[in-house]
Structure formats: structure tokens, C-alpha cells
């Protein structure tokens, strides 16, 4: 069974700090990796996709993928209170129609 | 905006009654999904569709059926609702690269269902 694991948190960081969110996955055939942000009571929103080893940066967000170690991480620089949300990691195996989601990590950014 | 609307947004029903949730999209996406989200379980796939009349089961399909008679609509039916089906239901579409889904999902606003 394909598994995607995340620490449920909450992860609490001060405003302006770097928040580091981690995700591990079990299926070595996984090829596509995603981070979603979900505010309380709202639907998930795609914020990053990464497909190859290394780092991908988009504004204050950096996704890091290490396929050998089977983990993907999301760094949020200069964290803001508005970043407080649950962050969901999702992984898709090559040839599959279906991404598998982790249970999410709750992030709290305090002023 | 992926043009996804779900209806109803909120529904309260009684055990044993049938319920249908509707997902409507306006951008001709081929791949559509129904997830449920519960505390402690995250997002779990119920059913998905890869075209008109083409559907398949996800990991938590028991007690649910789906239909897709046209591209824009994907219906989720609970034939006889149970309290364990109280949940928030999300519809999603996947972007495609060529004809294949990328896995980049865009979600509707969700439908909150309470079964008493």
C-alpha cells in the first residue's frame, strides 16, 4: 500500500522564521510530488509541484526532493501569520491517475 | 480558477436516505475525483473518472457510487446514508499533460454532509 507520511504537528514558528515541513513516501516508483495548503474550513490549494531531484523555488516557497531517501520537503521563508494553515503532501506514481495524500502538517506562525 | 462548483455545499440528512452530491466543471477536464476528508484521516479517494462513463474505485468506495454521463458533471451518490459517511466531500480535477493527468489537482469548495 502506498503511504505518504507527515508529522501532524502543530509546527509553531515565529513570524519571519523559516518553516520546514517534511514528507516521506513509501513507493519508489513515485514520480510527481505536490504541496497543498489548506486553510481551516477551506479546500486544498496547490502551491508547489516538483518532479525531479533537487530544489524548486517559487517566491518564499522552496520544495526539495530527494528520491533516494524518499522524502520531499517544503520550506517557507519569512513566515507570515497568513501562512498558518495545514500543508498537505501528495505523491503520484508514474502511470497512475491518482495522487495519494498525507494527513497534513498544521503550521502556526505566531507574531 | 478551475471553474469547479459543488452542490449542495451543506446538507443534513437522516440515516438510510439517498444523497447525491454534484460536481460541475466548465473547462472540459477529463480527470475528476471525489475525496472525503475526515479528522485524523486526511484526504481519501472515493472514486475517480477518466472520461465520460469511465470511472473506477478509490480506497474508500464502499457505500458510494458515481456517474459521469457528460464531461462537465461528476455525481457522487450515497445510496443509503450512514452516520460514518458524515464528512466533508471534495471534488477535484487534474490538469493534463497531453492526455495524461499531471496529478496537479484543483478542488471545489467542498460539500459538508451530516448524517443523523
Description:
The complex is a heterodimer of chains A (111) and B (116). Chain A is 0% helix and 57% strand. Chain A is an all-beta fold and 111 residues long. The mean pLDDT of chain A is 94. In chain A, strands 2, 4, 5, 9, 10 and 11 form a 6-stranded mixed β-sheet that branches. Chain A has a 5-stranded antiparallel β-sheet with strand order 1-3-8-7-6, with no helix packed on it. In chain A, a hairpin with a 2-residue loop joins strand 6 (54-58) and strand 7. In chain B, 0% of the residues lie in helices and 63% in strands. Chain B is built from no helices and 11 strands. In chain B, strands 2, 4, 5, 6, 9, 10 and 11 form a 7-stranded mixed β-sheet that branches. Chain B has a 4-stranded antiparallel β-sheet with strand order 1-3-8-7, with no helix packed on it. In chain B, strand 9 (87-97) and strand 10 (100-107) form a beta hairpin. Chain B is globular and about 45 Å long. The mean pLDDT of chain B is 94. Classes of the chains: A mainly beta (111), B mainly beta (116). The interface between A and B is medium-sized, with 20 and 24 residues.
Amino acid at each position: 500500500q502506498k503511504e505518504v507520511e507527515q508529522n501532524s504537528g502543530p509546527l509553531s514558528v515565529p513570524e519571519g522564521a523559516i518553516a520546514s515541513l517534511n514528507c516521506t513516501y513509501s513507493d519508489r516508483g513515485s514520480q510527481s510530488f505536490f504541496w497543498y495548503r489548506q486553510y481551516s474550513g477551506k479546500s486544498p490549494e496547490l502551491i508547489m509541484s516538483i518532479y525531479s531531484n533537487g530544489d524548486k523555488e517559487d517566491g518564499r516557497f522552496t520544495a526539495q526532493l530527494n528520491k533516494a531517501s524518499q522524502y520531499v520537503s517544503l520550506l517557507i521563508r519569512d513566515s507570515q501569520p497568513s501562512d498558518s494553515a495545514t500543508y498537505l503532501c501528495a505523491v503520484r506514481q508514474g502511470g497512475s491517475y491518482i495522487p495519494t495524500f498525507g494527513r497534513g502538517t498544521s503550521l502556526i506562525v505566531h507574531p | 480558477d478551475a471553474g469547479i462548483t459543488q452542490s449542495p455545499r451543506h446538507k443534513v440528512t437522516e440515516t438510510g436516505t439517498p444523497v447525491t452530491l454534484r460536481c460541475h466543471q466548465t473547462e472540459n477536464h477529463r480527470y475528476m475525483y471525489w475525496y472525503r476528508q475526515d479528522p485524523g484521516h486526511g484526504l481519501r479517494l472515493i472514486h475517480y473518472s477518466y472520461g465520460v462513463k469511465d470511472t473506477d474505485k478509490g480506497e474508500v468506495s464502499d457505500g458510494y457510487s458515481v456517474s459521469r454521463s457528460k464531461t462537465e458533471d461528476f455525481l457522487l451518490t450515497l445510496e443509503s446514508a450512514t452516520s460514518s459517511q458524515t464528512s466533508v466531500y471534495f471534488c477535484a480535477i487534474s490538469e493534463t499533460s497531453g492526455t495524461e493527468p499531471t496529478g496537479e489537482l484543483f478542488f471545489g469548495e467542498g460539500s459538508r454532509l451530516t448524517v443523523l
